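Problem: given the chain below (327 residues), write out its structure.
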Amino acid sequence: MKGKIVFEEHFATSDTLENTRSFAGDSGKWEEFERQILDLDDERLELMDKNGIEFAILSNNAPGVQAILKTDEAILAAQKANDVLAEAVNKYSNRYAGFAALPMQDPDAASEELTRCVKEMGFKGAMVNGFTQKDVPDSAIYYDIPEYRPFWDTVSKLDVPFYLHPRMQLPSRAPIYDGHPWLKSAPWGFAVETSIHSLRMCGSGMFDDYPNLKIFIGHLGEHIPYDLWRIDARMRFSRRDYRGKRPLGEYFLDNFMITTSGNFSDPAFRCALEVVGVERMFFSADYPFETMEDACEWFDSTTVISEEDRVKIGRTNAIEYFNLDLE
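Solution.
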């Protein structure tokens, strides 16, 4: 299929490149990965053309700004990443748009930076790489807590999506992975971390306060669609400190959108589609952590969907949702 649109696609700056090394794959391929994630020009565009991708919404790499302990440094790093991205978007306006990197160490600063990126640079929303560390390495701040309600008020008023991207849990907070470090990252831990963060949001009451919020998650929903029935069924017996006014599953189906990034499996795709519906499903690749070739070869050939739905998921859903000026 030609004309596909992707938006879990990453780039790095000198400030955020190195902290990706630990989960970028085989260390022997770091030189290639470094070249790809820093590139915003010829190689990326050539790969997009080769694989039938017309347009990409780009974002700063994980854990990115979320791993910077000092708030003032995080603010500057986010601004720098967004300025670099804005230059690329201006240079290739018919191929790129941007998601803002945000200094979530300070909810007010994050609100200010998102507002700048949306109103002054035309960014389409934000991508934040999981929980934020602040001041000390052994810290993990999640965004369902009351301190972030002013930030969500800004997101709601701007009416842009928030993409919650995975990051690796801190060793001190993940003893269950001891002796099995491979579990902490993309094979398993990324989905666990992101799904728990998402479920915290659903149970926090934030979607009652701001019902128009839209949260994107990748990898066919980070395991949640598969378990959504059981979550709601068992919560009939386990609702202690649950602050939502409705069943958790209703928030997920109303306020979350899903992409195919990095999960190119027909059975998982079929399950996610049945749970969330074709209108809430979007194609993405997760480049350069995944190859565009793998993502596109699978999506273009899967028999799980009709050709009409392939066009919706691969292109028109994104055009309509992000109001893209594409024919």
